[in-house]
Every structure is written in C-alpha cells, then in structure tokens.
C-alpha cells in the first residue's frame, strides 16, 4: 500500500510539473504537453490503497474524474496510462480519452468525468459476475459530491435489490469544486445513505490506509461471499485545488491548512516504522516508485501523436460508421 501511495503522490507531482509547461504566465489550458483539465488526488491515496489491496485483476473498478491513485492501486499499466494523459497514440484510449477517461480492460478499470457515472457500470459488472457464478467483485469510487445524484442512489438500490457484489466507496474531501458539502447534502456522514437501502455502511473518519484496509476487507469479502453490497466512506483530504489552475478564491486558508496538515502517506510511513520497517526499506520503496514514474513519463513523451484522420475511429463499435435506421436490425432503434 505504501508503494502505491508513494507512486501516486510522486506521479502527480511530476504530472503537475509537466502540466504547467507552456501554460504560464497567463494560464492557457490548451497549451503544453498535457492540454485540458487535470484533477490531482494528492490526499486521497489511502482510500485507493486500502480498498484495492483486496482486489484481483478480474475484479472491476470504476473511478472518477480524479482517478490516478485508484488506477495505480488497481494495477493499470502506468506507461500506457501516462501516454493517454499526454494524448499519445499508444495511450490506453489511443490518446482520445485523456486523464479523466482511462480505460484498461486488462485489469478491468474505467473512469469518467461525469459525476456518479461509474456507479451503474459497476452494478452491471457485479450483475455479470453473479450471473456467471464467479466470485468477482465490482467497486465504484465516487466523491461526496456524487451522493445526491440519481445515478448513485439508483445504483445502490439495484445493487441491494439484486444482492450484487458491489462495494461503493465515497471519497469525502469536503468539497465538490467550490461547493462545501454541508451546503448541498443533509448528512455529514455519507455512509448513512446505506441505511436507506438496507446495506452495511461504514465511515472511516480519517485517511488512514490501515483503517481503510480493515473496513474494505469486510465489505469486499462480504461481496465475494455472495452476501451483497456495502458502502464505505473515507474522509480524505483535498490538498490542492479542484483542478490545476484553480485559484481557490472560495476556500478559507485555514481549510487548506487543515487538509494539508494530515498526510496519509506520512502516517503510513510512521506506522510502518513503528512496525520495525527500517528507514532504508522505506527509502528503497520510494526510490523504486520514483524510477517507475520517471520511466513511464519518459516513455509516454516519446510516443507518437494520434493521426487526426483517426478521430472518428473507435467512437462507435464498428469503427465510426453509425448504422442508418434502414440498416438497423428489426426492432432496432437508431
Ligand atoms: C453529472 C455531472 N454534473 C456536474 C459535473 C461537473 N463537476 C465536475 S467535478 C464536480 C465536483 C465533484 O465533486 P466530488 O464528487 O466531491 O469529487 P471531488 O472533485 O471532490 O473529488 C462537478 C460538479 C460533472 N462532471 N458531471
Ligand atoms: Mg469532493
């Protein structure tokens, strides 16, 4: 878990540097090697590590617009993910998806920029696992900003009614862009939503990877054993702006300070030290993580750009030719 968390933190620090290249002095979002928005997850790492530690490659994970830490913990190919973020042809989605739309069928990982969009596909994956009689599990990560969305609530309902092997994980960082959660949500503890669907709900009040690991173990094992869905909320911290370039004029300074004070990566390192893991061993893990990140970024930057002629390919399953109504099978709806 420490290695995943350190990898994610360093990865995002390096992405941040690459992202800012060419975008200043006046912030030009389309300039530089990573054009478009970039949402970083520094402060969220413990949630991903504690949950994904219980998952196998064949389990399904859907994540959000802030996906890197989850993707790393799920085992997404770091090189192809980085190429995707840099918009290169060898990226996971041939450079057409960008950082919010990573998709890796090798380890069953997907994410989306649409809030709560990952919940219904996770329920679908869980239904497939149940019908196929496997012990596969699906996990859907959402932010606390998603818990009033229809997609989230309907997914909880379907998962409960059909007793599906899903774990819903809320990463509560107190903010949805510039909106503090207490202004839009009636519960301060999102795991209370579980009660309305008669499923277990638990909240971890601080982003401690070990505490998340323990709570997630129960939820994942329950799903794997065929005993239905659960909801786990983790208090995480948004150490940075909503996206790169966010001036955060709406955010009180003491809130930023509070979110930065506790660092889950440092906390886990302290735990490991007190369990007799040496400083040398921790340093070796960090070094390995840094090397992997540098290698992925160097590889990605060396990859070819997509050919503009391919822009309509892969948009529809047949490679760009949308069937006309006349060609559609009987009863088909264009
Ligand atoms: C359906 C939908 N509505 C609105 C948006 C715009 N939007 C992007 S991020 C975001 C806030 C999300 O907050 P939260 O779910 O708490 O995740 P966080 O950014 O805090 O990780 C919103 C409203 C969107 N992407 N999708
Ligand atoms: Mg949030």
From TrEMBL:
GO terms for molecular function: oxidoreductase activity. The lineage of its organism: Archaea, Methanobacteriati, Methanobacteriota, Stenosarchaea group, Halobacteria. Pfam families: E1_dh. Its cofactor is thiamine diphosphate. Keywords: Oxidoreductase, Thiamine pyrophosphate. Residues 319-334 have a biased composition (Low complexity). GO terms for biological process: organic acid metabolic process; sulfur compound biosynthetic process. Residues 32-308 form the Dehydrogenase E1 component domain. It comes from the Archaea. Residues 305-316 have a biased composition (Acidic residues). Residues 297-334 are annotated as: Disordered. This is Thiamine pyrophosphate-dependent dehydrogenase E1 component subunit alpha.
